[in-house]
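in:
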């Protein structure tokens, strides 16, 4: 009897390749999202520092120009935070899409893999039955 060969092995390899690519894309999306979140936290820290300086200017410096400049700086930081927040939400949506794609590919890969295992089990059962039949024929011919 021939050696076991899964008839859709090439499709299995293709799905495995797609799954690997989807995993890589998911990691890239996660890294991008994490970088945006870090940038947002950095902006928050800058804004808190600007607020602290504003209160310090109010106590120490009586020049209104420093306070006004700092207030404009705070407004710019808030605008940047809003833009980064929008980017984060888009990055999160992209991350979720890629995660769903990966999960679908993993499910498809697992189904094909299970089918392959079932086919191999059938093959082995058939092979064992054929070998037993040959052994029985040899034994009957000896008698």
């Amino acid at each position: 009897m021939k050696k076991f060969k899964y008839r859709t092995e090439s499709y299995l390899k293709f799905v495995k390749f797609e799954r690997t690519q989807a995993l890589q894309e998911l990691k890239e999306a996660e890294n991008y999202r994490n970088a945006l979140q870090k940038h947002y936290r950095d902006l928050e820290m800058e804004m808190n520092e600007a607020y602290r300086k504003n209160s310090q200017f109010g106590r120490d410096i009586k020049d209104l120009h420093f306070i006004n400049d700092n207030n404009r700086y705070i407004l710019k930081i808030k605008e940047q935070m809003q833009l980064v927040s929008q980017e984060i939400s888009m990055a999160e949506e992209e991350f979720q899409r890629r995660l769903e794609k990966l999960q679908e590919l993993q499910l498809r890969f697992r189904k094909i893999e299970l089918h392959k295992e079932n086919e191999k089990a059938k093959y082995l059962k058939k092979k064992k039955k054929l070998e037993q039949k040959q052994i029985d024929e040899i034994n009957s011919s000896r008698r």
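note: Helices lie at 9-60, 64-142.
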